């Protein structure tokens, strides 16, 4: 039993850490909305789901003026973070939280989760 002591301590620390991280999500801003300014038509809203530590769809092509809404369906906290600063990044998103951004300029907008950098996606905006 003695040789399992370090492993048991590590397991307890992991559980306590998970509980503490989960409690932080209730303090984050659950919904934010930003716009890149300018005119542009109000395109049909499009949704990106954050689930299973992935953005789905991973790539999305939309017209200028379209608002994209990301919804975190994972229990873990995630972000929507612009790779190149071309759009405003989200705050931490807890489970059920959403983030929306209106893309008013054509171009390619790669993004990732700042907490889990292997999670990536791209929004392609066409005229």
Q: Output the CATH class name.
A: Mainly Beta
N→C terminal distance: 66 Å
How many strands, what sense, and barrel or not for the largest sheet?
5 strands, mixed
User: What amount of the residues lies in strands?
Assistant: 35-45%
How large is the count of helical segments?
Answer: 1
* Structural class based on helices, strands and sheet pairing: alpha/beta
Mean pLDDT: 77
The CATH homologous superfamily is named Cupredoxins -  blue copper proteins
Order of helices and strands: HEEEEEEEEE
Uncertain runs are 7-44
At CATH level 2, the architecture is: Sandwich
Largest sheet: spatial strand order: 1-7-5-2-3
What is the alpha-carbon Rg in Å? 18 Å
Reported by name, the CATH topology is: Immunoglobulin-like
Give the fraction of residues assigned to helices: 10-25%
Please give the domain count: 1
Q: Can you count the beta strands?
A: 9
Morphology: globular
